[in-house]
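Box 3.1. Reading complex inputs
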Amino acid sequence: MISASGLTKVYGGKTALDHADFTVRPGVVTGFLGPNGSGKSTAMRLILNLDRATSGSVTVNGRPYRDLPAPLREVGALLEAKAWHGGRSAYNHLRFLAGTNGIPRRRVREVLDVVGLHDVAAKRAKGYSLGMGQRLGIAAALLGDPAILMFDEPVNGLDPEGILWIRRLMQSLAAEGRTVFVSSHLMSEMALTAGHLIVIGRGRILADTPMADFVPASHVRVRSPDLAALARAVAAENWRARTTADALLVYGVTPADLGDLAYRHGIRVHELSPVHPSLEEAFMRLTAESVEFHGIDG
Ligand SMILES: Nc1ncnc2c1ncn2[C@@H]1O[C@H](COP(=O)(O)OP(=O)(O)OP(=O)(O)O)[C@@H](O)[C@H]1O
């Protein structure tokens, strides 16, 4: 479990993380979602004690990271920057890490198998493709068999096969009961991977919610020259509805329910369409106020 309380980081005059409170729990992939520059990497660096918080605190399994006796056995992390020595082979890199962290050497072979680098383990990492490099970074994160795993934008630049592999791996790690915390600015990717979402914008936590609760409910959009009469008929049915400038949005019903109701009341209908809001839309609405850089026409 990861718990942040009032976590704040100010760089010069710039607040990268602003009194963030959140908890990342085991057994589910938790997506850390926010636009570029919203503070995701900053939060992850603070969790790993790679940077000092300006104020507030964050604990890993109840303790600050710096107080963990064997950090690699408790938290594995894949951050954006490549952290290995390119001249070394994957095998030697992992063996070095294992050696300096009291991890048995046989574990190196195990993680090489998990990430599928077995056949190229003797080759120098300098020649690895982006996808192979990510796999090596993940092997290093898994080396200490930690209960907590953090991945910062793990699918950036990967091909579809690599993306699918990472997605499945994260889900199986969570299914084993581990805490899996993964950052992304891609809503579509999070929608397929995460069961829980922490949404961040301009350093502030905007939502901390199960994925299923994040998407607004499906509804039916109806337009009519007699919208007021239709709204009254809908209210009489006790259906939940909301009026917009030119339409009525009715929740928890089908277009057929609504069409039949209008017919019974002799109300003409000019449009009747089912609406299934996407996670992308929910995310854009939530972060619209907090995007740091808009395009010229944004
Ligand atoms: N070392 C630093 N010095 C100064 N400002 C920084 C530093 N690191 C981050 N920032 C600023 O803090 C803010 C948050 O950056 P951060 O890298 O945490 O965002 P992010 O959500 O991870 O973004 P991205 O998706 O682009 O990686 C940004 O405005 C960034 O410019």
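In summary: The chain is about 35% helix and 25% strand.
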